[in-house]
Specification:
The protein is mainly alpha-helical. 63% of the residues lie in helices and 3% in strands. A three-stranded antiparallel sheet has the order 1-3-2. InterPro entries: GntR_C (IPR011711), TF_FadR/GntR_C (IPR008920), Tscrpt_reg_HTH_GntR (IPR000524), WH-like_DNA-bd_sf (IPR036388), WH_DNA-bd_sf (IPR036390). It comes from Allopusillimonas soli.
Length: 246
């Protein structure tokens, strides 16, 4: 048996497995409705537990009932909407129990992926990580004092940085499940960024993770990543429970 565990990993990439429903193109009616609904669920315009009435929403999003149902079906696949058989659809509830489960599972898998990436990563991988951090840093500066307009840009850059960190990991299944977990945490992460329930320097957290990763210090990088992910959970715990009542 090889001493290096990475030699046992498949060479498949995340792209070789089906992930979340494809990010629907705004060039299609279904895509436009999907992205509009998803945005409004993430930013709280459609709060957790909201009944999604097709006859009302088709007017709001300017599409037909069939198109809207297709968009809602994509959001069911995203686990942002719940289908109730003949009773229709509603926005998936939020809860601290749900976010705790997301957080701890993500820590378990993302640290494993980061260890593998550090073990397998080459100069090109390091360059991708540094470039992603630079783009995130620029987005962080634009986010300050302008959360509503810049959150989606920051969220995309934050996602890209976390993906770059583990991009050298060869396990397609780790990438697949981490994409789902990251996606599920987005509503909670937005609350943390907007409401700032605890003092926090997210930039410094990212910088420390970057430095340990580039030093190929897997133990330190994983410890910092664990603290980084778990701090968001601890921040959300400080928010009023009414935010999670449906």
């Amino acid at each position: 048996m090889p001493d290096d565990f990475s030699a046992l990993l498949p060479t498949a990439t995340a792209a070789s497995l089906p992930g979340l429903p494809p990010a629907a193109s705004t060039k299609t009616l279904v895509g436009s409705a999907y992205l509009g609904l998803r945005r409004d669920i993430i930013n709280g315009t459609l709060p957790p537990g909201t009944k999604l009435r097709v006859e009302h929403l088709k007017t709001v999003y300017g599409v037909g009932a069939g198109t809207l149902r297709e968009a809602l079906a994509l959001l069911v696949s995203d686990a942002l909407v719940v289908a109730e058989g003949q009773r229709g659809f509603h926005v998936k509830p939020m809860s601290m129990a749900d976010f705790y489960d997301i957080t701890e599972t993500r820590i378990l898998l993302e640290c494993q992926a980061l260890r593998q990436a550090i073990g397998c990563g080459d100069d090109a991988w390091e360059g991708q990580v540094v470039a992603a951090f630079h783009r995130l840093n620029r987005a962080e500066k634009r986010l300050e004092g302008n959360h509503n307009e810049r959150f989606e840009e920051w969220e995309a850059r934050n996602r890209d940085f976390h993906h770059a960190l583990i991009s050298a990991c060869r396990s397609a299944w780790l990438h697949h499940f981490l994409a789902i977990l990251y996606h599920q945490a987005e509503r909670y992460r937005r609350l943390s960024i907007e409401r700032k329930p605890i003092p926090r320097d997210v930039h410094a957290e990212h910088q420390a993770i970057l430095d340990a990763t580039l030093a190929h210090d897997a133990d330190t990088a994983c410890a910092l990543l664990t603290d980084h992910i778990r701090t968001t959970y601890e921040a959300i715990k400080q928010l009023p429970q009414a935010l999670f009542e449906n």
